[in-house]
Amino acid sequence: STSKAWWKESVVYQIYPRSFQDSDGDGIGDIPGILSRLDYLEELGVDVVWLCPVYESPNDDNGYDISHYRRIMKEFGTMRDWEKLLEGLHARGMKLIMDLVVNHTSDEHAWFAEARLSKDSPYRDYYIWRDGRDGREPNDWSSFFSGSAWKYDEAAGQYYLHLFSQRQPDLNWDNPKVRREVYDMMTWWLDKGIDGFRMDVINLISKAPGLPDAGGDGRYSFGGEHFMNGPRVHEHLQEMNREVLSRYDVMTVGETPGVTPEEAANYVGEERGELNMVFQFEHMDLDSGHDKWDVRPWKLRDFKAVMGKWQRGLAGKGWNSLYLNNHDQPRMVSRFGDDGRYRKESAKLLGTLLHTLQGTPYIYQGEELGMTNVRFGGIEHYRDIETLNMHREHLEGGRDERDILQGIYAKGRDNARTPMQWDASAQAGFTSGEPWIAVNPNYTDINAEESRRDPDSIFHYYRRLIELRRAHVDAIVYGRFEELLEEHEAAYVYTRTAEAGGAGAAGAEHAGEAAAAGAPGAEHADEDETAARGRGPESASGNAAADAAGDAGAAGE
Length: 557
Ligand code: ISL
Known about the structure:
Helix content: 25-40%
Structural class: alpha/beta
CATH class of the largest domain: Alpha Beta
Strand content: 5-15%
CATH superfamily of the largest domain: Glycosidases
Bound molecules: 6-O-alpha-D-glucopyranosyl-D-fructose
Mean pLDDT: 92
Distance between the termini: 43 Å
């Protein structure tokens, strides 16, 4: 049976602040910019906003490299601006979840500055240091962003581990002081009234003792088996839940690359006391060969198999998240649909899927407009560190420049990071200045103003999907999932059926159904009453008013 929860009934909207709305003409989106667009979010009808990192950061990885967890990035505004954002969302009946990036910090974080100074520093053991091996790195792990996962630090006289960029040193979660710092910081934000966290690569925080080699063919290889879902990850998350999360009525979603439904059940099982849901990646891997840049055609049957596996895999055990793109992935309509002639139709089809499978849907900014991938003429137009590092490495390896660009066109993260297309004016209404990354030239056709004017637009279709979901909670949120014609190469057909008497009741009675081919707004024989309830639970949180331990330690937090 499935218990009821507000975060199961919610639709989440993801904001990548750097690219959403600039308010001061510096070409970088900011918090006052978001504030000026709250009416837009309210019109769309979303329940929750997930705000990508807005903390102080040198922006090696656009805010995923945090130098201070309790300050707002200068380019984005002030803490007062952020408070106004929280107030503005709550006043409109929306909630706010923040990005929690605690697998690593920035190399400019005060902890790291202290740690590298000496082996005796109390902060040394906040990070993962090793001596070299035969004049080389401590092991053969590759970084997600090319090259080795280790960097030799002159001041420290040792190597430190960085699974992502050289400027994102991994925290040492085996150190109880690190965990305490993280829990205090989370509590500090929760006491400000936020409604939950999206947890960046949270399944990578526990590394296997001894940090064994990956043992691949190349100089550096993916060592995932030694740090994905590592030995203590569940112990840590249960502790985090006990110490922090369980005291608040909040939602959590963990980003967990490489997780299977069986493993996911350990993170989201309702009896486990860890997380509410995870972002799985299996459908994101369907068009990849040996790595993401090795682009392969995907098949609908494989896509259906993955989605169905997750629907069935977590049914009655834990909750799914549903997403088809985000700030790290190509645009949904370019990847899984058709971004030319059938752009609108395919975006609506994919939106229907997103809103009628079982799970909490996540809309990435611009998806509701059918924004597409971009093809810039040369590498100088790209900004993403993953893309730039890969480009350099492949060029050095003798790959053809045009070849590399093809991979970037299909998979580069900047596809998702071009500015939000608000209207047909200069720079798509995103900024009065020079944007930090160029706008997609198709903004003259694809933009929010045009979409809001056209009753048949993707925007209004999404708006109606959200309404439909709210009007048929028993079927669309809690109902049983059953797939038909699983082997079919071209049709994607499934039903969603409400249990008689609502969620948790036994004895199914066919009530409502939805399929990817169905149209929102169509009448369903659903007896659900929850539509009358309006926007859902009002209270932002049922906080057990734990006192803020907002005090900073010696190294600045
Ligand atoms: O982007 C990816 C696809 O190649 C992933 O490898 C991605 O790096 C991974 O999903 C982790 O993503 C998260 O952590 C990164 C950050 O760069 C991403 O933006 C974030 O979503 C490091 O913090």
